């Protein structure tokens, strides 16, 4: 976390503690209280939609769960508020876990439609249960009381609700600035890459779905005691859309965007309802039209929300470097020289009637650099995807260090030490080079979500950052370390991918066209790095079109043509083979 972020957090907390002592009118104090409640739910949507790319229209139903649990337990069981909060969070989290396990396997437009469906289901369930008062709801709650103090509905409630909002924001910042946080940030644009680095992406999807629901549950708990009554009208689809609207307007990619979006939408909604009828001379819900136009303009001119406009006035955010004395990460044992590391046996892949890879077999031994070459369309990248589990085999077998890995998930294969790069660079554009490379070391860490939230992972995090920095320097990218990955030229993006793969401490490294886009000097540096890795016991499988590099660094070369095995041998043998000349030049002469 950068120093500027820490300073901003403390400044916001100071403002929250000062505001209740200012002579604010009761109306504006009430507005701020509602803004804080709405921002709590929008905060979860920023995590869910903006960070992870999962669109949900059903968060209002989770707000209702928290509110109804608090109201029912307080009225019927006489429970104190904190006990109702604990039970509400348990019920909300359990419901979100079940719903998430079912719906998060959907993709595209099916996921938003599913969230609408279960949001409506929960809304009508609340409105039809006799125990919950049907559509009249539950009334007669006492005001919020904590530790024997009456919080009330004014300045005391403002302090409590906004301090809770601040604490939740800090918790999410700590989470996103961590090993599990980097995995979560990879869900939106780099799911395939994350799986190849050992990340269980579905588990993290469910985790953040539950976290977003719990934030909505906290908001519902506060709302119940603030209004002293609960009914379904506040938890329907309309409010679900409005919460998402707040996140988009404020900045769906930024946690502070939830605060800003809730403020802008709440104030505009209230003021437009008052001023538009006066201007037009007729009554009606004209503010809906204005909000629709506003959303279109924001999506066109500020797709990252209003916070992106404020953020441009901030200076660069650079992570505090605190890992000089960090303990090194554990290293995996490498196979002894000459042992078979990878054994590919007659692997085959068909897409309908198209045979992309047809019964390819070869071996890689410890300490070898093996080149996999062939003309464009030969099936080299598809072979990579079959070996690493990115694509399922149609038939055949793959053994890594003597263990069968065919049929395993890509993440499970990566955790065993078989790590890859991609033909087309895969990265998280808005993350720094340092954080992108640190994703590669994910399988070498142990910290979870709770450890990150409560900052119990600092020693491990420092070790992960030290490893990422070491690999960045190793490939000669020290000057780019804190730069957003999207700003890198293509050559540096390739080197960043290699550094990320090296952070995983691979026993076998698969490089898919690593020299593409590199200048001559950068290719020489790449060759140096590959030879150094070989001397450290790392085996390498290399797909590359730069024949000078392949012939320079490879010990053994396998040649493919039209998805089939053509030949293999040493670089000199392959260069002299007439079948290889025919494949590349179209003639044997």
Describe this structure in words.
Helices cover 54% and strands 12% of the residues. It has helices at residues 3-18, 26-51, 59-77, 81-103, 110-128, 155-176, 179-185, 191-196, 201-227, 237-250, 255-280, 286-301, 306-311, 380-387, 410-415, 433-438, 449-453, 458-474, 490-503, 520-535, 547-553, 571-576, 578-585, and strands at 138-139, 145-146, 149-150, 229-230, 340-351, 354-365, 369-373, 395-400, 403-404, 418-420, 508-512, 539-543, 556-561, 564-569. It has a 6-stranded mixed beta sheet, with helices on both faces. A 4-stranded antiparallel beta sheet has the order 6-5-8-9, with helices on one face. Strands 1-4 form a two-stranded antiparallel ribbon. The chain starts with a helix and ends with a helix. The model has no long low-confidence stretch (mean pLDDT 88).
Short description:
By secondary structure, the chain is of the alpha/beta class. It is 54% helix and 12% strand.
Shape: elongated
- Mean pLDDT figure: 88
Give me the side-by-side strand order of the main sheet: 10-11-12-7-13-14
Look at the helices and sheets and give the structural class: alpha/beta
What's the Cα radius of gyration? Answer: 28 Å
Question: Alpha-carbon distance between the termini?
Answer: 62 Å
> What fraction of the residues are assigned to beta strands by DSSP?
5-15%
Number of distinct helices: 23
State the total count of DSSP E strands.
14
Largest sheet: 6 strands, mixed
| Low-pLDDT ranges | none
Helix content: 40-55%
